Amino acid sequence: MKPFNTTVKNTLLAAALVVGSANLTGCGYNSMQAQDEQINASWSEVVNQYQRRADLIPNLVKVVERYAQHEQATLTQVTQARSQATTINVSADVLNDPAAFQRYQQAQDQLGSALSRLMAVSERYPDLKADKQFQELQAQLEGTENRITVARGRYIQDVQTYNTTVRQFPTNVTAKVFGMHTRPNFTVANEAQISTAPTVDFGNNNTNTANAGGQPVQNNGNTANAGGQPVNNSATATAKP
Fold it and tell me: Looking at per-residue confidence, does 111 or 195 come out higher?
């Protein structure tokens, strides 16, 4: 039989553990830990798909080089972009360093742009487009790009959930106590461009515009009617009495 004091101590310890667990759950600590693990898993999938894309590039470059030897500048850009993207640290530590995360994203975006230019080269070489190995690599690359998009989307959602928990009250108090901070997230590569309103120019009185029928109309005297035919604006309408 256990001594009375030992039994009491064990009972008090169990009660303390239950109360402590309830407090951690109520303050959001457990939720943040679970969300943090989900972010790490999502990040691993992003890195995995980016690595898959990088592994396809050397063979793709070799095939293109056989048919498009005059495109050395484009081939070199792809090779250099791949080298830069694969040398950046992609461990989970990147998620705690916004600057490092941004460098990684920029490197991957540059590689994606270089790949787009390389694929555009194939349009000028029919024999290259007909090559079976090129077609297979192209199909694998397209599939990988789709998986990258899906993986990035999941990561973005998981980070949004976690960052919301870290920033909102009262869980933000728990986050500060345990040193848990918001995680960096992916951004739109051409954010500055798409956030700028396009310039719309309707021309002036000395330029031509199209009427409803698609034909140009001189603005210095003619306008288009509903049927798309030019109407001479130089005539003055006379009101009927």
Answer: 111
